[in-house]
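Changelog note: in this version the structure field was regenerated for every chain. One regenerated record is shown below for reference.
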Amino acid sequence: MGPVIKRTADFLLALLALLLLAPILAATALVVYLTMGSPVLFRQLRAGRNGKPFSVVKFRSMRDGRDAEGNLIPDEKRLTTVGQVIRRLKLDELPQLCNVLVGEMSLIGPRPWPLRPSAQGNPGEMHRQRVRPGMTGWAQVGGGTRMDWPERIALDIWYVDHWSLALDMVILIGTLRVVLLGEHPNPNALSEALTHAERTYPSGWYLGGRP
């Protein structure tokens, strides 16, 4: 019954959010177009539930800069000032409400990572793919980019095994804190998650590299 309630809540909340945030979505799209041109949206194949590929949608935050040989230059050189602001406020993630609406994502869950063959051989990454990926998750409110990848995987494993609607509410509130105050590691949550991951995968196989 829990997953049914979660999916229903995802659909209704994503629909409501799209309606309420329509002016912000439109304003962000206009700013992206004026500063970076077309296209306004960025699409990339990501691993969904059970590793099923889907196209995640985000607002662009980087220019399409290339070197003399036609190769993309490093991300840090392509990221614009506007892009930095959009990322800091998490505005680039808002189009993923459409992914939630059609059932490819959830509001809360492990973040979807780019497709890569090595993920299918890593128990930790396969563990986190047991549920729909989310727009935000336990790893994001537990420290986000201020943690390394194995720590994020451990937090995602803990979330999958301890999911509840109450936990999702905690994460939603924590996400607002991250938007307003920035990312801050949660040592207690991380310690508990690492202990759980090491107990679940004593060989350390839950560890994974950067996607």
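Spot check on this record: Strands lie at 41-47, 53-59, 106-108, 134-136. The chain has one domain: 2-200.
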